Amino acid sequence: MPLDAAAAVARANELRDLHHSERTELDVLRRYWTGKQRLPAIIPADAPAEVREMARIARVNVIDIVVQALTQALFVDGIRARDEETGDDVTVPVWQAWLGNRMNKRQAGLHRATVAYGTAYTVVTPGEPVPVIRPVSPRQLTAVYGADPDWPVMALEKRPTAGDWRMYDAESVYVFYAGERGFELLGEPLLHGVTDRTGAPVCPVIRYRDAEDLDLEDEAEPEVSAGLAGFASSQTRVVAGQVAPLMSLQDQINLTSFSLKAAEWYSAFRQRWIVGWTPEKADQRMRAAASQLWTFDEMPDDVQLGEFNETTLDGFLKSREAALKYAATLSQTPVHELVGELVNLSAEALAAAEAGRDRKVDERKTGLGESHEQTFEAVGSLMGIDIPDDAQMVWRDTSARAFGAIVDGLGKLAQMLGVPQQELWDRIPGATQQDIRRWKAAAAQGDALAQLTGMLDRQAVGGPDPEVDPDDGDNG
User: Bridge-partner residues for 174, per DSSP?
Assistant: First the structure.
């Protein structure tokens, strides 16, 4: 049964304290991800304005490139299962809920938050005409887990656009207003009715993780209040996303870029000096700076001329390039996407250069695919639809391979190994489930028309119809 008002407020306040502790660390990750990380520590507080400006523009945001390179290869195009009677691929009806929630567009934000922070969520609640699927950043939602690692015990979500907070448990949704004195419960709890495959009610929050780590729970277990004792938070303390491992390297790249800019500003050009003479007026300084031949009428023996050589920038550039290559190695990002060196590479060479990233993408597709299937399980519970056990996500192929080579390989599979052609259609790059359904419908219609045309041709020449038994009917 739902919690009473006092118990609900107490749980929400405990979860909000946990949320604030997590949010502090997640905000640091957000700043590094968006290129707003701190300035190099070597800059003193009273540094000139131009020095602070150089430090600001010297932040070369490598982390965002790593995140984008991974998430731009993660797009879900459908969910499918096998028909038990015919053995054909069928589209699971809950796919309409995905389309109705515009998840074709919103999945990019879900995958991007998962990859960057290490964790993200979807919240599934009743709606019309289909259940509502909402991707949520971990900066806005905190969930705690018990013995079941798949479904949380409860979760608290901050909804900035709605101006309220929502707490979810296995039976109800509680809506709160956060005032100066803490939470105030707004109205009666809402029922959501989500159940898992065992028929037990569950909290309608599904967790997405960038990578699985069996030691993460023990290391990330936070200090919680007595009311939440025994539960573990799903996030922070130890983060398995793409941002945290690259933060130190990002600082190194920023420091090298700042040193490069400082060298360009102060010593990348030759500077001349004079000992024994000081210009009295500004126009004398300007003429001296622009003059190619200097002469001094008074005390020529006491005047010395000289110049400083310019600083060579090659060392800074090579240092930054080495750091970028190191970042590419650590993150399994193709080097040419960070360094920008891509000269006349064939499709095969480009595929080889991106092999490491492709392996990393495949691992994410496996983990994120299971979370997507769990989301569809919650959607199916609200729609009264059973999700087949063999249902699986259909991911878009974004690997760097020549289209002609792929089609040639698929043709050889059909001709040399006898694989049915229609079974290979979903392996065509860029083909969606809607495309495949149209192709199959057109193929079925073409077969029917071919049979009808053949029958009419045989009747026109007086030939027998193979579908009609000549012994049928009255032969007398």
Answer: 167
Phi, psi of 370, rounded to the nearest 5 degrees: -65, -40
What six digits make up the tokens of 362?
A: 């495949």
Q: Rounded distance, CA 303 to CA 296, Å?
A: 8
CA distance 287 to 279: 10
Instruction: Tell me how many degrees the CA angle 108-113-117 measures, rounded to the nearest 5.
Output: 155
What gap in Å lies between CA 333 and CA 242, rounded to an integer?
A: 11
Name the pLDDT band for 222 (thresholds 50, 70, 90).
Answer: very low
Predicted TM-score (pTM) of the model is 0.76
120 beta partners:
208
CA 386 to chain centre: 29
Q: How many helices (H) and strands (E) does the chain have?
A: 14, 15
How many other CB atoms are found less than 10 A from the CB of residue 215? 8
Angle at 328 between CA 326 and CA 329, to 5 degrees: 65
Alpha-carbon span 467 to 472, nearest angstrom: 11
> What are the pLDDT digits (tens) for 265-316?
777 566 666 666 676 666 666 666 656 556 666 666 666 666 666 677 788 8
